[in-house]
Each structure stands twice: as C-alpha cells, then as structure tokens.
Specification:
32% helix, binds S-adenosylmethionine, Dna-directed Rna Polymerases I, Ii, And Iii 27 Kd Polypeptide, Chain: A, domain 1, Rossmann fold, 13 helices, single chain, alpha/beta, 5-stranded mixed sheet, globular, 21% strand, 3 domains
Amino acid sequence: MNATSQKNRLYYGDCLTIMQGMEAASVDLIYLDPPFNSKRDYNAIYKDETGLPLPDQIENFRDIWKMDVERVNAVRNLPVLMREHGIDDRAAEFCRLYMEALDKTQPAMLAYLSYMAERLIMMRGLLKSTGSIYLHCDPTASHYLKIIMDVIFGQGNFLNEIIWSYRTGGVSKRWFGRKHDVLLYYARSKGSHVFHVHKERSYSTSAPPGFKEIKKHQDEHGRWYTMASMRDVWELNAIGRSSKERLGYATQKPLVLLERIIQASSNEGDLVLDPFCGCATTIEAAHRLSRHWIGIDIAIHAVKRVSRLRLTERLRLAAGKDYRIEGIPLTLEGAQDLWERDKYHFQKWAVEQTDGFVTGKRTADGGIDGRIYFASKLGDKTLSSMILEVKGGKNVGIDVVRNLRAAMDREKAPMAGLILLHDLGERKLDNFRREMGAAGSLEVNGINYARIQLLTVADILDGRKFKTPGRVAGQSATQFSAPVSTPLDK
Ligand SMILES: C[S@@+](CC[C@H](N)C(=O)[O-])C[C@H]1O[C@@H](n2cnc3c(N)ncnc32)[C@H](O)[C@@H]1O
C-alpha cells in the first residue's frame, strides 16, 4: 500500500494485519484508544430482541485477557520483533525481563500488554520522523503501558502524560470519583516533531494589570483571564446521555478532544491514523480539520455504522468517491480472496454476516467459530444458541456435519449452522441434507426449525440468514441498542 492509495480509508480488520500492509514512515499522527484492561462488561451494548444482554463471548470489546497459546507465542516473539524493527537491544532485553516478571505475577496484564506491544511496534514503523503518537488509556493499565511506550518509542521521546478529566458517570462512596483518562504522548523523534502551541484561558480573581480595558480578556460572566500556553490537564466534557454528538457507541470520545490533539500535532494535508477507530471520532475531527485519515476497527458493526452515521449522514461523504471501506467482501471473489489472505478474518466476517458473535480464536483451537443467540421461550431469561462452523476449504467431507452434531451435544446447543465458502455440488449436497435432516427439528411457539442448517457464502452475500427462533427469515435478531454513556461509570 503506498501513501497515496492509503488515504481516507476505513478498514474492517485487526489493526495488526492492516498495519503490516501499510507503507513505512507514511503517517504524521497516530491516536489510539484501544480496549482498556478493565474487565468491564462492554458486551451489554448488544441486545437481542428479548432485551437481554448477550453473553460475553462477543469479539468486539473482548476486554478479558488470558495467556493462551497465541499470547504465549507473542510474548516469546516480542524481543525478536523489537530487534527486527530497530529497537535498541537493551530495551528489548528490558522488555523481556519485564514480561517474565509479569508472567509470574499478573498473567492477564501480560496478555494485554503483549497484544498492545505487537501493535505499538507496527505503529512506530508507520510514523514519519516528524510524527507523534497519543495512546489513550486509563489508570487501570496506564503505568504498565508507559513502560511499554518507553521501550518502543524511547524514554527520550516521551512528551506528556495528559490527564483528561470529566464529570459524567457515577461515583463511588468508597473512594474518590475516578474521573480521568490518561493520554501518553510520544514523538517519533523528539525535537523533529510537529507541535503547534495551544492557548487556554487562565482565570484570575481581579483584572490583571494592563488588561482592564481589553474586553476580549473578560468572559461572558465578567471574569478576567489571560491567555496562557495549554497545560497537560484538560477538563473537557465526555459524551453524556444528552450529548448532541452521541452516536450510541459505548466508548465514543468527544470531538473536541480529538480536534485539540490533531491541531496540536499535525498540519493540514497530513495523514492521521486511528487503528482502533470505534465510531470514528478521529476521522470526523481529521476531516473537519482538512487532514487525510485512515481508520481501522475489528468490529463490523463499528465499520458499518460509522460509514452510515458519521461519514455519510454527518459529513456528507460518499463511499467509493470520497473514501473507501476495505476488508468487507461484497462478492464471492472478494470472500475467496479474504480466505486466502486471512483465514481467521474470513471466519469472523462470515459469522458476523449471519448476525452471529465470534467465539473462535485466531489460533486453531478446534472449537466452534461463533454463535447466534436467541430466546427459545418468550420471557426466557437464559438465551439458547445456534453454534456456527465456518469452512473455507474446497473439500468439505460429511464428517463436518457429524462433528457438528457432537459439538451440539457437548455445548448443549439446540441448533447448529454450517457456513461453506464453496458450493458442494448436487450429489454431495444431497448427502449433507440427509445427514443434517437426521438431527431433526426444534419446535418453538408452534414453528419448526431445522436443528442443523447450511448456508453458502453466495447465500450470505444474497442476504440470507439462518432461521432461528426470535428472528424472521432474513432479518437481524441482534440490534444495536442504545448503550451506556461514555466513559462508563468507573
Ligand atoms: C475504546 S473503542 C474506540 C472508541 C473511539 N475512540 C471512538 O471515539 O469511538 C476501541 C475500539 O477498538 C476496536 N478494536 C479492538 N481490538 C481491535 C483490533 N485488534 N484492531 C482494530 N480494532 C480493534 C473495538 O472494536 C472498538 O471499537
């Protein structure tokens, strides 16, 4: 991807994979607001028609960290990755020891930090020598992340720890209200970095000498102020329930925060990257300030909603003309191409197209790939699910259906759905139908649903869905509901 072709793009995918394909030293400013290590249940943002929150297997906002095989390998490879990216040997060795200590004491934190480190190393490679990066986090992990930032970007390139304080959300009766986030601000190369000084009002109780007659230094309430260079403590309103900006995305950040960052650390025409772009606050701010932009998000809901609400309706931008969405296959060839490039991402896309939630991992774990949740009885508080299996290979054998039946027993799931990239051909399809039919049907409210169903990717691209209780054929059972305000109560 060269620098021109990558401008004004919205990518659906893991930012790690997308960034691997981007041109080195091509980005002027990176702002990232990754999922925090907070164990908070973000999943409540999705509800089904029953109004019940869905269980926590949902991939986006998967905010719970474990040292699984993927993370163990990532930790092992980190020092090598650092050396490959030109990070100082001593820093890489320090990082190895840091990770070793965390492994014994805080494995969940280690899983989170190793995930972040892999991606931050990529970001370092993408920044121009004049560029800078703002990592948005909170006190749960900011102190651990700062060590990782020091290792990757160099302690000498640290510029500020910005405190963003706000007043929204609840407060505890057992400690002081936790009402701030932390932004770790680093230059790619301190001294060469772009920085435009911002001014803020500094209030005084009486008129400062010499300012008495100058009306512009008296605010609408008659209070006197002077203009001073901005400090690293920013008091800005968060997106509350009644905020006009609110798009219904649980962790949406205010535009004014992003505008301040973009104005301070970039010039018109520069390229701004947000690798965890959510509902695209950074993109809107960058666009309004005449910067080019790239946004990446792993959640298809974010990418689709973003394009509709933020870019099309609010900014009046046309997809395909003013910007492009990448990574969502629209044709069978596109889906095949995705399978060739990234098998896990293909599975994730297929599951999400059927309104399912991803449960499978990037590393082959032999488990199921996703689930569609539904209530089998009206008012039932426990949700049932259809387990999903995605197969992208050409030679799918009948044992896939047999394995699915075994998985239904194991998972106590009343239904299963099989998604195939390739058509089976008439004869094989007949065999599959017979084997699937033997699993029988599920009766809910007088309607029978085949317990095992099959869809091909061509079906999915035609808009067909699995038939499960709580959904009319072809219509989504999962809806984006009005979620909690942001930042969430701490
Ligand atoms: C805290 S939210 C960002 C909110 C955003 N700043 C806004 O104002 O809307 C974090 C986002 O990161 C996305 N995400 C999580 N892991 C990701 C990954 N590996 N690659 C890309 N996006 C990811 C989530 O889907 C979520 O939308």
